[in-house]
Design goal:
The chain is an alpha+beta fold. 32% of the residues lie in helices and 25% in strands. The protein folds into two domains: 70 residues; 43 residues, no CATH class.
Length: 130
């Protein structure tokens, strides 16, 4: 059976969260380079992160599930300057995070109740972008 990469993660925890979501949906998946990254976290970039792989037949469903959680992880983001996926969220807005945002939320009637990452920081080149 042919396996396809559907996600790349820079930490063991992120990789396992994603893997758990797919397994909950009865999609069988494997992690590649997990041991390397776990034992030598410093070389995560050298091996390109932990690859989450699924059987080719389940690829589309897996990507759909992972995309639905995109707001919770910056794993899918790419730096516009250097193309790196080594991105972290630096500013997130959350509903009712403060009285001010609660009022803004009420006045503007924003449709989303989820926390959204507003700004990202590239760990490779230091670029910050929305
Ligand atoms: Zn960059």
């Amino acid at each position: 059976m042919k396996y396809i990469i559907v996600g790349i993660y820079h930490t063991y925890i992120d990789a396992h969260l994603a893997m758990g979501m797919l397994e909950d949906a009865n999609i069988s998946c494997v992690l590649k380079d997990e041991n390397t990254v776990s034992i030598y976290p410093g070389i995560t970039n050298a091996v390109g992160g932990i690859k989450l792989m699924v059987a080719e037949a389940q690829k589309e469903r897996a990507i759909e599930i992972l995309a639905s959680t995109e707001n919770e992880t910056a794993a899918e983001r790419i730096c516009p300057d250097c193309g790196s996926s080594n991105i972290e969220c630096i500013t997130a807005t959350q509903k009712n995070a403060s009285w001010l945002s609660a009022i803004a939320h009420a006045v503007l009637g924003s449709g989303s109740d989820d926390s959204i990452c507003k700004m990202y920081h590239c760990l490779d080149c230091g670029n910050e972008f929305e």
